[in-house]
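Exercise 3.2. Students should predict the tertiary structure of the chain below and write it as structure tokens, then compare their answer with the key that follows.

Predict this chain's 3D structure.
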Amino acid sequence: MPGTTMAADGTPVAVLAANTVTAPVATPVTTRVTAPVTVEEVVGRLREIGAVLPPADGVAVFNRLYLTVTEAVRDRLGGSYFADPAAMAELDTVFAGRYLLAVAADAAGQEPPACWRPLFALRAHPGVHPLQFALAGMNAHIQHDLPLAVVDTCLRRGCEPAGLAADYHRINGLLAEVETAVREQLMPGPDVLERAEPLTHLLGVWSVEAAREGAWSAVQALWELRAVPTAARAFAAALDCSAGLLGHALLLPLGPHPAPDAADGSPRTADAPGTTAGTPDAPGKAPHAPGTAPDAPHKAPDAPRTAAGRLPEARNRPAGEGAGAQARPDQAQLECSGLPSA
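Answer key:
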């Protein structure tokens, strides 16, 4: 748009200044959601989302983590923790707006950005551990949303990213503490160590510090591209796709996991879906040989329908195929990966 400063993803800054977050989704419809203006309002929005979701819902798991981080940032805005508390407060609200937009798009029956699709699609999968949900949400929000939010904040405030660098990196220590606490809370106990081993291996490759360092590199690249909206949009789209692909990897189903028992989502040891604890096989009936299917497969529980999402299976199923049809990979993810679609 001639004569108009563009945001990190090509959105006119005037739109951002009007206290709204507007972004295209995978359908021709554009989702519009009022952006929060204070960190306290972000906290309230996150609490509202958490109140309507079952504790085991994958989005709810990430939402609890995000609420904890946001409250920690809020509690440090009034002291001397940040060099520029006002800038950090604005960044926090702009940053949160992108997650709120993804939730709103999903609730409206639209596809969220590619980085968020794995979490929303697999939110009710019984083989995905809660810790995977938490880290997949952090991956989407940090590796895609954060660079765009930093650049947008700089454009709104008329400052360079370098002016936010010290406070940006100061948050790394805070997030590392929260991430460690969440890992300890959600990680299975020693009684289910066999289940925890593949989880430990999978999640050992991801860290919040490495993700935020990568995001800062993306900030610098986007800042250099701000005068070339086409290139900025292409780079932002690449961030979206790559974060989505990594999200799929982080959410690789690992089998039965400790299901949340308490209202706060704290884990307990769960039996495999569809089984009854302590129920032996019928007398005289031989156990199933390895690699063979049981006589009658157990029916998995229906995924919950909530205000924040729908049944995930329907999103990857081509029109006209029934519920028993094999799910097809997300088209946008195939395009991001460069793999041909079927």
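Discussion points: The chain has eleven helices and two strands. The two ends are 37 Å apart (CA to CA).
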